[in-house]
């Protein structure tokens, strides 16, 4: 630190300068390190005294305010900024020296070498440093999918950036040598002398580098000629050398010539690294099963007890105060081995134990775990539970971010998806991802997110899937195992810790309050006795009612007073039997509210409980503003809660839902009226579950509950450790439900896990911006394409290719020159004929024609153009067969004689009928439709039963030599006579003219058939006796090969046409260019998670900039609200345009449907809220329930943040700041009160 010489600031030194000490002093520092005292002497007309002192150590440190200096010098000095000569002033401000060299600076490239320490292996002493080459130094998040790339900036470490590459998804291989050699559609052969591009792809203008004046000399030597010369030299090597190196040459792949040195480099690397890998594989082969029989999903046996658990896990990462079940122990063992598991068990069976152990393991290993849940409320609850258990837990939802640096992060699946696409650094440290409530993958709207995340997870991340019981857990796990190339251990248990008893309840008054009938017992037996007892009880009351008041038509709906009577009766009965708490599932929000309000006479709590409820309620609401505490919904709920009754559905304010959940888990809420969402994941079991109805509205219409839905909700009954059994009651208010419906619902199989995979624009754009990832790869790996067993197909393809190469080449000279065209014609003829036969069989007239007595032409392995007569037609409509009497050679009755080459289909061109050379015999056979090659116009009178009986009798050994009966002889002679009368062929029934089949397909096929049959006569190859056998074998192999090649290609993907349509839309709107490169609009759309096209178009059309912040917030509310009302022109016109464009590009959604998804019902509400109106007044503006309004505004805040980010990418800072203001305006009071679970 600088010190002044002693006595420097003494009074004497000032006196020597004749400076009065009372005057104001200013210290000015010059560049040379001299101090100038500037003393303004007001009395002596501001005479300046200067004294300069050379400091021994240069300048002292200072802290001048740069801002005030700039203001004084530039803004307050009139000579510096002249009012009239602005140009001069501007020049003065911007005057700077031109330095061209500064433009040549570039950031230094990363070092390619580093220092490595050499130590003594025994003592560990440091001996030396050596320089080592470092790989992957140029990799970054902007150019590589590798985990070896450098970390990005800290600001992007959590959520990543939409310009980052994601990490390479597990199971997606790096490009193989064949794929590198294979050119894509957009690649062309580069000619380095002609046709060089002058404009780079993606740019509008370029440069012409050719020198117009200089003559271009023809190069005398080029690289390819040198290489060819090199080849010639190698060919001249002595033969002895060749023999020595023969083995090596067989092993080493031959390098093809290439125009690209880079390709050669890649090939060299691959070929050099190939031998060690091969060796490795050979070593590991004996240990593993052969790949053909490889199953990725491995079911774990949980019937046998796990006795050696504590030996195998002596120091568990986490200990529970109770003994684990077998399925939990097996799961823990798998986690210890770092395997992925799928745990399917009933609600409250203890699946959370598996998640807890994974979190504890990651803390032990100092890695990270991500726990994903389908809904935000469940994320909040899990955050509280895990925070209490582990401490180091963070939460990420759309609007809340708590401790993002924690080792365990809880988030919704959508946030994990965006982190994966944006290459978040969190993924590097990730050891486990836990997917809770995996059966949510069946959700039509959001199920695709689960599939995307599962596909995008990198290789080093292990997966834990927790689900309710599902029938196809093994199939689902097999899919995940196959796409991730790792084993998934499936642990499935049907055991319930607390068995359930299901009852029907028909009571509706004090007299009938005990009418509760057991329908399914704790073991799972369906008791029909209980069902009929319930029916009788209901019928008796109905008949009494009918005697008094006349009959009344029964319906599903009941009046409010009837409902009230039933609920009062039931709840009195249950509280007497101490069967509370009760969860009453009601599939209508208004019905929930009405039922709760109708119980105003009921009080289920003691005075102590009332006091506890009151203090908790007041404490929870203390963070709300005074006005918000007086909201009608809060006052109603407070009154209900004090009496032990509560309501839980999406229309309730989030803070009230949380208060209800917490009071319910403490046992203070005795009766909870809830919708289906309460059964989702959160562990809040009750003593009893009641179903108000078993019918629900699913968005399209009313239907019965599915078994999976019923099991999920009924599973809330029975508290582990408190109840011996859980009670499930179904109310029979209008009448007893059908027994079949109840049986299916209670004991049916739960819903299968089904793929809801669909293409979204965000997904397409996110994958297009990364060259190494293709959208078709994502589609191929989706659960919807699970049936594609590509590995098996590829093995078979390689076998077939070898078979094709081993077959002798086709002789296509002379007569056989038209062999292949003939084969294709015959194949087409065969398929056309089969299609026609199918059409005939499915038609009424065709079946009438194929009746008893009809003469048909039979062709199969035994018969060639033989006449037969139909004796019987089977009733089986799927595999219909025809019993027929057919003429044949003597001795060929059983088909043991000479067999015609039916594979050659000679009957397709040769219509000459079979006439026996020797004595005519007969046989009775069952024919399939394909055996009947023609239905003739002729019919015979036959006695079918006699013919069949006589034939069957003569099949027995002792009657075998008997002569045929009269009926058979007559029929055989008639058939022979017909064949001899028309040896060239009998006329057959025409499907169009005779059978009156007028459909377009049939008419086209019959015309095509005639053309093909006529064309067959012109082929030369039919004169060669064995011509067809040669081509048949080869072509059958080739056809199978072509079919499999199609199946493994992208062309067979079911979503491929839609992908091309969506790309067309993106190209039309200029989100991507013709070569598939993502443009600026596409990059903006990547920022936005839903309605990305509409928002991006509004942004680029500048529709939001002229609006005030509160107006833009109101306008964007249409994207997050779901109830109908009138529209707003600008958004609707853009939506209409996008909808019409999608329709034009072939996407099967009408413009009206696209526009119809944007609802403007809360526009006024959001506008008033953004302008600061209290929530109580806003609630009066709309009939939408308070909880829905809050959810809408919370989701709107997420949309505003996305638009703000997008505006910044475009460079529109004004719109960005407007969105920030709008976001701040709506983020207040009760709407954004922090969750009770996070405090």
TrEMBL record:
The chain crosses the membrane at residues 37-55. It is found in: Cytoplasm. The keyword Hydrolase applies. Residues 244-254, 277-295 have a biased composition (Basic and acidic residues). One of its GO terms (biological process) is nuclear-transcribed mRNA catabolic process, 3'-5' exonucleolytic nonsense-mediated decay. Keywords: ATP-binding, Cytoplasm, Helicase, Hydrolase, Membrane, Nucleotide-binding, RNA-binding, Transmembrane, Transmembrane helix. It catalyses: ATP + H2O = ADP + phosphate + H(+). The keyword Cell inner membrane does not apply. Residues 603-768 form the Helicase C-terminal domain. Its main location: cytoplasm. One of its GO terms (molecular function) is hydrolase activity. One of its GO terms (cellular component) is Ski complex. InterPro entries: Beta-barrel_MTR4, DEAD/DEAH_box_helicase_dom, Helicase_ATP-bd, Helicase_C-like, P-loop_NTPase, RNA-DNA_Helicase, SKI2-like, Ski2/MTR4_C. PANTHER family: ATP-DEPENDENT RNA AND DNA HELICASE, ATP-DEPENDENT RNA HELICASE SUPV3L1, MITOCHONDRIAL-RELATED. This is SKI2 subunit of superkiller complex. It comes from Sparus aurata (Gilthead sea bream).
């Amino acid at each position: 630190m600088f010190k002044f010489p002693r006595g420097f600031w003494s009074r004497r030194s000032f006196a020597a300068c004749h400076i009065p000490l009372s005057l104001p002093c200013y210290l000015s520092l010059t560049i040379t390190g001299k101090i100038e005292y500037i003393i303004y002497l007001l009395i002596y007309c501001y005479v300046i005294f200067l004294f300069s002192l050379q400091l021994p150590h240069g300048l002292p440190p200072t802290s001048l305010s740069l801002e005030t200096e700039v203001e004084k010098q530039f803004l307050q000095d009139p000579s510096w900024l002249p009012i009239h000569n602005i140009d001069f002033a501007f020049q003065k401000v911007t005057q700077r020296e031109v330095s061209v060299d500064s433009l040549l600076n570039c950031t230094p490239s990363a070092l390619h070498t580093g220092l490595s320490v050499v130590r003594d292996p025994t003592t560990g002493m440091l001996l030396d440093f050596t320089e080592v080459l470092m790989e992957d130094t140029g990799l970054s998040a902007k150019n590589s999918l590798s985990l070896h790339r450098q970390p990005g900036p800290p600001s992007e470490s959590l959520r990543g950036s939409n310009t980052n590459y994601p990490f390479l998804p597990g199971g997606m291989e790096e490009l193989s040598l064949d794929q590198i050699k294979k050119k894509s559609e957009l690649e062309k052969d580069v000619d380095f002398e002609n046709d060089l591009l002058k404009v780079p792809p993606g740019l509008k203008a370029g440069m012409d580098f050719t020198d117009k004046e200089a003559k271009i000399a023809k190069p005398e030597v080029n690289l390819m000629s040198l290489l060819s010369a090199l080849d010639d030299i190698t060919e001249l090597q002595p033969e002895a050398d060749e023999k020595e190196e023969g083995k090596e040459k067989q092993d080493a792949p031959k390098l093809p010539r290439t125009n690209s040195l880079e390709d050669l480099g890649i090939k060299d690397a691959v070929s050099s690294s190939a031998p060690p890998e091969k060796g490795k594989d050979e070593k590991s082969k004996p240990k593993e099963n052969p790949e053909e029989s490889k199953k990725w999903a491995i079911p774990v046996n949980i019937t046998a007890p796990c006795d050696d658990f504590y030996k195998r896990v002596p120091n568990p990462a986490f200990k529970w105060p109770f003994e684990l079940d077998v399925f939990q122990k097996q799961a823990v063992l798998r986690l210890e081995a770092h395997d992925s598991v799928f745990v399917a068990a009933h609600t409250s069976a203890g699946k959370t134990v598996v998640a807890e152990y994974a979190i504890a393991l990651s803390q032990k290993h100092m890695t990270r775990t991500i726990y994903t849940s389908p809904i935000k409320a469940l994320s909040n609850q899990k955050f509280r539970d895990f925070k209490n258990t582990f401490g180091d837990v963070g939460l990420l939802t759309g609007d809340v971010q708590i401790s993002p640096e924690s080792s365990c992060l809880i988030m919704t699946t959508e946030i994990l998806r965006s982190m994966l696409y944006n290459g978040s650094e969190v993924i590097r440290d990730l050891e486990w991802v836990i997917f809770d409530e995996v059966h949510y993958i069946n959700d039509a709207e959001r199920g695709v997110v689960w599939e995307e995340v599962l596909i995008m997870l990198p290789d080093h991340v292990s997966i834990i899937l927790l689900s309710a019981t599902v029938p196809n857990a093994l199939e689902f796990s097999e899919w995940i195992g196959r796409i991730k190339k790792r084993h998934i251990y499936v642990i499935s248990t049907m055991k319930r810790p607390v068995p359930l008893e299901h009852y029907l309840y028909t009571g509706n008054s004090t007299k009938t309050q005990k009418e509760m009938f057991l329908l399914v017992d704790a073991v799972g037996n369906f008791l029909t006795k209980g069902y009929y007892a319930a029916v009788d009880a209901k019928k008796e009351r109905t008949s009494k009612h009918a005697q008094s008041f006349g009959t009344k038509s029964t319906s599903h709906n009941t009046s409010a007073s009837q409902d009230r009577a039933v609920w009062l009766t039931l709840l009195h009965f249950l509280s007497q039997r101490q069967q509370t708490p009760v969860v009453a599932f009601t599939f209508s929000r208004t019905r929930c509210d009405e039922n709760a309000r109708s119980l105003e006479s009921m009080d289920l709590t003691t005075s102590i409980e009332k006091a506890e409820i009151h203090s908790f309620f007041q404490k929870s609401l203390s963070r709300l503003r005074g006005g918000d505490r007086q909201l009608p919904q809060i006052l109603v709920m407070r009154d209900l809660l004090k009496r032990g009754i509560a309501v839980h559905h999406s229309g309730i304010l989030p803070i009230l839902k949380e208060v209800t959940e917490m009071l319910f888990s403490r046992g203070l809420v005795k009766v909870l009226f809830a919708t289906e969402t309460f059964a989702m994941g959160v562990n809040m079991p009750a003593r009893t579950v009641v179903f108000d109805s078993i019918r629900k509205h699913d968005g399209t219409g009313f239907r019965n509950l599915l078994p999976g839905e019923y099991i999920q909700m009924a599973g809330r009954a029975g508290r582990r450790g408190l109840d011996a059994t859980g009670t499930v009651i179904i109310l029979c208010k209008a009448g007893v439900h059908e027994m079949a419906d109840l049986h299916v619902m209670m004991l049916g199989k739960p819903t299968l896990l089904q793929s809801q995979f669909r293409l979204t624009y965000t997904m397409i754009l996110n994958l297009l911006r990364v060259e190494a990832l293709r959208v078709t790869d994502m589609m191929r790996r989706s659960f919807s394409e699970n049936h594609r067993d590509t590995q098996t197909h590829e093995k078979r393809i390689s076998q077939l290719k070898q078979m094709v190469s081993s077959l002798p080449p086709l002789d296509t000279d002379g007569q056989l020159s038209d062999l292949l065209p003939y084969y294709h014609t015959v194949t087409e003829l065969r398929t056309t004929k089969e299609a026609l036969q199918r059409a005939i069989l499915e038609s009424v007239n065709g079946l009438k024609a194929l009746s008893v007595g009809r003469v048909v032409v039979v062709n199969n392995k035994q018969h060639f153009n033989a006449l037969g007569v139909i004796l019987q037609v089977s009733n089986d409509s799927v595999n219909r067969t025809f019993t027929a009497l057919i003429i044949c050679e003597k001795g060929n009755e059983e088909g043991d004689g000479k067999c015609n080459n039916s594979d050659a289909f000679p009957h397709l061109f040769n219509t000459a009928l079979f006439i026996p050379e020797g004595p005519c015999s007969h046989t009775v056979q069952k024919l399939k439709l394909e055996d009947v090659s023609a239905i003739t116009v002729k019919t015979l009178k036959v006695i079918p039963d006699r013919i069949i009986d006589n034939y069957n009798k003569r099949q027995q050994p002792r009657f075998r030599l008997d002569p045929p009966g009269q009926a058979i002889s007559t029929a055989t002679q008639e058939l022979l006579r017909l064949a001899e009368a028309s040896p060239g062929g009998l006329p057959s029934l025409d499907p169009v003219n005779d059978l009156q089949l007028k459909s377009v397909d049939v008419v086209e096929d019959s015309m095509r058939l005639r053309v093909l049959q006529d064309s067959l006569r012109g082929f030369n190859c039919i004169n060669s006796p064995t011509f067809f056998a040669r081509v048949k074998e080869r072509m059958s192999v080739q056809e199978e090969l072509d079919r499999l090649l199609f199946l493994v290609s992208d062309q067979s993907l079911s979503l491929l046409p839609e992908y091309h349509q969506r790309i067309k839309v993106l190209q039309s709107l200029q989100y991507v260019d013709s070569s598939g490169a993502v443009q600026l609009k596409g990059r903006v759309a990547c920022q936005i998670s839903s309605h990305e096209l509409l928002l991006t178009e509004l942004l680029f059309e500048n529709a939001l900039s002229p609006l005030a912040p509160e107006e833009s917030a109101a306008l964007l509310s249409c994207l997050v609200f779901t109830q109908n009302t009138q529209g707003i022109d600008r958004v609707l016109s853009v939506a209409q345009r996008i909808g019409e464009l999608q329709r034009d590009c072939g996407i099967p959604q009408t413009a009206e449907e696209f526009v119809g998804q944007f609802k403007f019902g809360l526009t006024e509400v959001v506008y008033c809220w953004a302008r600061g109106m209290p929530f109580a007044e806003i609630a009066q503006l709309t009939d939408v329930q308070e909880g829905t309004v809050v959810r809408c505004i919370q989701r709107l805040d997420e949309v505003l943040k996305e638009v703000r980010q997008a505006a910044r990418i475009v460079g529109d800072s004004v719109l960005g700041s407007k969105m920030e203001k709008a976001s701040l305006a709506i983020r207040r009071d009760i709407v954004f009160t922090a969750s009770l679970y996070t405090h």
